[in-house]
Amino acid sequence: MVRLPEALKSSSHPLIRQARRLGRQPRRRREAGLFLVEGPTALAETLAAGVQPVWVLVASARVEQQPCQGLIATLLDREVPVQPVQQALLERTAPTSHGPGLLAACRLPAEADAPHAVLEGRTPGVVVVCWKVQDPGNLGTLIRSSLAFGAAGLVAAEGADPWSPKAVRSSAGAIHRLPVARATDAETLLEQLIADGETLIAALPRGGAAPAALSWKGRPRLLLGAEAAGLPEELVAAATAVSIPMRAECESLSVAVAGSILLHHAH
């Protein structure tokens, strides 16, 4: 086995500083063109999707333990730099507190800041538009469901960053396989959605058509509103409303659950 470098012990090392910035600051992710993947399972999903990490940090105590040992061998075969890090230092560096033992930096996809590229694609299927969804766990779940149920892509209008650590983890690897973009100007996106002529389907808690009553052919835009504020009136007015039938005593579903159910109907 190739000998790895000596374990890092200093929080001032450039890789440690970059990992900390990538895990906590969306602006830094955009500037570097990188995002973090945490843990052996997530890294295995990344490699299975054909994504090549730029560098990998691994807790020195786990270098000779599975599954890290096998992943390191694969990474070295692919000439990916692997840097051991003192366990306590890596735990302080990681954006989550569960001690993933491994951090990998991956390149942001070309369409990350180009929502028009996702909206104007030619692959048939629903394009999910998450309107100012704030919870990264919900956003990651919707990315996962979008891939599972054959969506053509997903656009996040402001709100949570799809490449935040929690969203990436919640996507269970789907972030690498589905066209995803983030629109930083929701008002411009709103104008494009209304003007581009594609079918708009707005998810509402009550009062809309049943999912089975609608046509999901072509590339309709499934509009999912923020957890509290919902969708803007202009979008709702331009769209066909859809609602999931449910018991009267249940006020609403979470955006991740509702979106997943609607995607299943569309599939």
Characterize the structure shown.
The protein has two domains: 14-107, 60s Ribosomal Protein L30, Chain: A (2-Layer Sandwich), CATH 3.30.1330; 115-266, Alpha/beta knot (3-Layer(aba) Sandwich). Helices cover 36% and strands 17% of the residues. It has helices at 14-24, 26-32, 40-48, 68-77, 87-93, 115-119, 136-148, 165-171, 186-195, 233-238, 255-266; strands at 34-38, 55-59, 82-85, 102-107, 127-131, 153-157, 180-183, 200-203, 221-224, 240-242. The strands form two sheets. Strands 7-6-5-9-8-10 form a six-stranded parallel sheet, sandwiched between helices. It has a four-stranded mixed sheet with strand order 1-4-2-3, sandwiched between helices. The longest helix is centred in the middle third of the chain and has 13 residues, at 136-148.
Task: Please sum up the structure shown.
The chain is α/β, with parallel strands linked by helices and 267 residues long. The protein contains 11 helices and 10 strands.
What's the structural blueprint in terms of helices and strands?
Blueprint: H1 14-24, H2 26-32, E1 34-38, H3 40-48, E2 55-59, H4 68-77, E3 82-85, H5 87-93, E4 102-107, H6 115-119, E5 127-131, H7 136-148, E6 153-157, H8 165-171, E7 180-183, H9 186-195, E8 200-203, E9 221-224, H10 233-238, E10 240-242, H11 255-266
Parallel strand pairs: 2-3, 5-6, 5-9, 6-7, 8-9, 8-10
Antiparallel strand pairs: 1-4, 2-4
Rg result = 20 Å
Sheet/helix structural class: alpha/beta
Oligomer: single chain
* The CATH homology group name of the largest domain: SPOUT methyltransferase, trefoil knot domain
CATH architecture of the largest domain: 3-Layer(aba) Sandwich
End-to-end C-alpha gap: 46 Å
Fraction of helical residues: 25-40%
- Beta content comes to 15-25%
| SSE sequence, one letter per element | HHEHEHEHEHEHEHEHEEHEH
Number of discrete helical segments: 11
Beta-strand segment tally: 10
For the biggest β-sheet, the strand order reads: 7-6-5-9-8-10
Count of folded domains: 2
**CATH topology-level name of the largest domain:** Alpha/beta knot
Shape field: elongated
**Low-confidence residue ranges:** none
Main sheet makeup: 6 strands, parallel
**How much is the average pLDDT?**
93
Query: What is the level 1 CATH name of the largest domain?
Result: Alpha Beta
